[in-house]
């Protein structure tokens, strides 16, 4: 039995702690904040409740496996999990509206064909088929196994171009895929959104990102009743059941090392009160330091008078009418908030989130982080909230008359609550681009120290954070 200290009660830290305690290790979890969940934050006011981080779940099998391996129960025994159907509705840059089914490539192709022309549906489906090739080629080494000591095989993008032959050029970026294979500004907007939601520039990110729309439209999107905070609560309960020593309000200042010269290893952690907590293994779930400039999220929480109308999609994406302006605002030399950005309007059919007869909705936008933009300026935040709400009303104009109040959250709030530099959101790990988009490994140069969470392999996103915990637990092993 090893003494293990986990730093941080984000979802990666909680999941790793539960797995390691289950196999017999003595696990202590130290969290500087008074509560758990990390990015899965929560805001409550006047009987309305909102997720302040991620709101939807992909690949729920990751958390089904966690619950089964740590307590022999189903995920559905711990939370109410619902498939989101339709998967998304879209207001495209030219004003076209299209609704896409959940977990059905055939129905997605049919919907795009009906709205944009049969050729558009065929081209989108063909691109997703090549995204499937990326998924199959990289699923195990990129998601389920530790990053190899020699990651050079993952430096090459496995995306296969539509045309083959000596003269065929493989697309280098996601934007190349759109220009060469989709050839439609409306389809380009659909594809761009998968990059933008993680703060990635489609003009730079490798073509391999096509596995994200393939995965989402093949395997589906899911919602947890009560919001994803309920999932964080379920994983916390599993830690408690496995007798993890949970210490909230306990800040770790640094990892302590020991051993002979040349054979140093992690031997514990130094706490803010000056005491040392000894350990055989230290697992760090804190946000990585030194990551600057990556975009964050602006979130607008909406308390709405009256019940949610029947038939309203859970997720509506309003696309930016000017792609060049949005990319310049996010990734140009002088980052700024885009006045008409790509945004998600989330309206869950969940009576637990609002007082009887009312509705809670959330708008999310990818924005520059705290630093390049001063998100602590109340006037700036208020003005941008006005712009975002006006843009969202293009898709749902009735919201304006029903608004009781709104609350804006910025990358500055994320930074203050989670420690993420600038409030940045970690992206998924991607093959290609000579390894530029691979997350750092879970191991460390210092023996006995491991890293877990969205800032490390296999990258950001709730499912990948859970995979990170699985990988780290496997690296530590059983007693």
Automatic annotation (TrEMBL):
Region (Disordered): 413-440
Residue ranges annotated for the Amine oxidase domain, each copy included: 11-283
Organism superkingdom: Bacteria
Protein name: Phytoene desaturase
InterPro entries: Amino_oxidase, FAD/NAD-bd_sf
GO MF term set: oxidoreductase activity
Coiled coil: none
SUPFAM superfamilies reported in the protein's UniProt record: FAD/NAD(P)-binding domain
Pfam families hit by this protein: Amino_oxidase
């Amino acid at each position: 039995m090893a003494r293990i200290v986990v730093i941080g009660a984000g979802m990666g830290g909680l999941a790793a702690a539960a797995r390691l305690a289950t196999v017999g290790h003595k696990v202590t979890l130290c969290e500087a904040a008074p509560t758990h969940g990390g990015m899965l934050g929560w805001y409550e006011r006047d009987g309305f409740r909102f997720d302040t981080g991620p709101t939807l779940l992909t690949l729920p099998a990751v958390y089904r496996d966690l619950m089964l391996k740590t307590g022999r129960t189903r995920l559905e025994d711990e939370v109410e999990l619902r498939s989101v159907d339709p998967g998304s509705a879209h207001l495209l840059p030219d004003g076209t509206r299209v609704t896409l089914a959940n977990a059905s490539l055939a129905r997605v192709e049919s919907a795009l064909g009906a709205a944009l022309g049969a050729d558009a549906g065929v081209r989108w489906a063909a691109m997703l088929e090549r995204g499937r090739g990326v998924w199959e080629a990289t699923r195990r080494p990129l998601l389920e196994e530790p990053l190899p000591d020699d990651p050079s095989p993952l430096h090459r993008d496995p995306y296969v171009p539509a045309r083959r032959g000596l003269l065929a050029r493989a697309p280098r970026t996601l934007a190349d895929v759109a220009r060469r294979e989709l050839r439609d500004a409306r389809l380009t907007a659909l594809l761009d959104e998968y990059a933008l939601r993680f703060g990635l520039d489609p003009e730079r990110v490798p073509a391999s990102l096509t596995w994200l729309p393939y995965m989402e439209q093949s395997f589906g999107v899911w919602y947890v009743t009560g919001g994803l905070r309920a999932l964080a609560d379920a994983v916390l309960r599993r830690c408690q059941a496995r007798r993890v020593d949970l210490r909230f309000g306990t800040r770790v200042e640094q990892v302590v090392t020991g051993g002979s010269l040349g054979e140093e290893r992690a031997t514990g952690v130094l706490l803010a009160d000056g005491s040392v907590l000894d350990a055989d293994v230290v697992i760090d779930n804190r946000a990585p330091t030194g990551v600057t400039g990556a975009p964050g999220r602006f979130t607008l929480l909406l308390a709405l008078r009256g019940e949610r109308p029947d038939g309203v999609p859970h997720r509506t994406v309003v696309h930016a009418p000017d792609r060049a302006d949005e990319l310049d605002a996010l990734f140009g030399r002088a980052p700024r908030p885009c006045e008409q950005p790509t945004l998600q309007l989330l309206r869950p059919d969940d009576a637990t989130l609002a007082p009887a007869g009312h509705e809670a909705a959330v708008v999310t936008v990818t924005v520059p982080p705290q630093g390049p933009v001063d998100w602590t300026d109340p006037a700036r935040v208020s003005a941008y909230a006005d712009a975002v709400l006006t843009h969202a009303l293009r898709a749902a104009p009735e919201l304006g008359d029903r608004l009781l109040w709104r609350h804006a959250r910025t990358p500055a709030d994320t930074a203050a609550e989670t420690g993420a530099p600038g409030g940045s959101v970690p992206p998924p790990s991607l093959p290609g681009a000579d390894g530029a988009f691979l997350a750092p490994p879970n191991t460390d140069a210092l023996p006995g120290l491991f890293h877990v969470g969205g800032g490390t392999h296999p990258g950001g996103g709730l499912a990948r954070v859970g995979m990170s915990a699985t990988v780290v637990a496997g690296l530590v092993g059983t007693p």
